[in-house]
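Weekly puzzle thread! Below is a chain. First person to post its structure in token form gets bragging rights.
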Amino acid sequence: MEQRLVVMDGQGGGVGRALIERLRAGGYEGFLLAVGTNAAATAAMVKAGASAGATGEYAVVYNAARADVLAGPIGIVLAGGMMGEFSPAMARAVAESPAQKVLVPVSRCGVQVAGLEAKPLGGYIADAAELILTQCRSSAL
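Winning reply:
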């Protein structure tokens, strides 16, 4: 059974776009849903190779509950994350989702993860893509 993979992002969708590009380049051919807090973020992720896109608070809440793997910048679990784009309801839906969550550390969110190796954002995105690809491959067995 194919994993339901959901990538979420806000602002201009740059982290989500880069993550989707990496996943597709890494061989992920399955359905991949892009969920943005705004139309620009969703459009960027769809253009990067998402199978479909959805936008807004209800799209985040609805799809978080249905995801097997949920990925995006760390701000998706923070009420007020992404410069206020992630509402408390959105952050709660992501945090309470039964999905395996793969979060990309982004310093703009005002959160630092102790013990995390310092590297450029692209390195964290590459790590996240590899975690997701590994998760999806092991679930396909």
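Puzzle host: Confirmed. Bonus trivia for everyone else. The first strand starts at residue 5 and ends at 9.
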